[in-house]
Amino acid sequence: MVVAKGKEGAAKTTAAASKKRPQRNEKGWQAEKSAMTRSAILEATIQCLLELGYANTTTALIANYAGVSRGAMMHHFPSRISVMRAVIDYLHVLRLQEYRDLMVDIDDPQSSLTDKAIRESVEAAWRYVNLPSFLAYQEMLAASRTDGELRQIIEPVEKDFEKQFLDTVKAVFPHWQNLARLEGAHDMVQFLMKGMALSHMSVRKNARAKRVMTYLTAILHDIYKEADLMEK
């Protein structure tokens, strides 16, 4: 009887422990599932912005694109502006990382900045402004001109992005020691690339973009060489 009682006690202890373990695993799974749902909603919002535009992107359509229920959508983002705020923050981080990835190793600190490297940086900048992340953000940026609530959210993020973006440019182009010239070159590239990317109705857009990139490469080469001579 004593042995049987001992077995029964051990069985109860094992059962209690087994109940606790799944609870911990369940919490971890729920957290992972929640993160996956949130990520799906953010990606779906970007897709809606690209395909439908800001004005037509509703929470119902986002939920449909994400393949989640309205309840799940409302649980994560109770309003349209709340999901837009999250997407803006999400794109803020993503766009900086995408730029770093595109520009990695273009300006090798161990060798001189060649014409080929300058051309590669221009082509990378063109690819950058054609990424879904860039175009989706521009859609919201344009909408913020007349949407006061959206403007309040996006304005401080845009200011912070501009600062971090310039810091990133300085880091990926170590040969550009003349920072004033680098900032000027950066502004020229960004304004030109943005303009070309958003000119979606232009005739022969790709051919014209190639021609502009050839001119831009030559101009950047001259700016860099002039700045290099000034430093010497």
Automatic annotation (TrEMBL):
Region (Disordered): 1-32
Keyword DNA-binding found: yes
Keyword DNA-binding: yes
Alphabetically ordered keywords of this record: DNA-binding, Transcription, Transcription regulation
GO MF annotation list: DNA-binding transcription factor activity; transcription cis-regulatory region binding
SUPFAM superfamilies: Homeodomain-like (SSF46689)
Regions recorded as binding DNA: 58-77
Domain HTH tetR-type: 35-95
Source superkingdom: Bacteria
UniProt feature, compositional bias: Basic and acidic residues: 1-10
Name of this protein: Putative transcriptional regulator
Species annotation: gamma proteobacterium HTCC2207
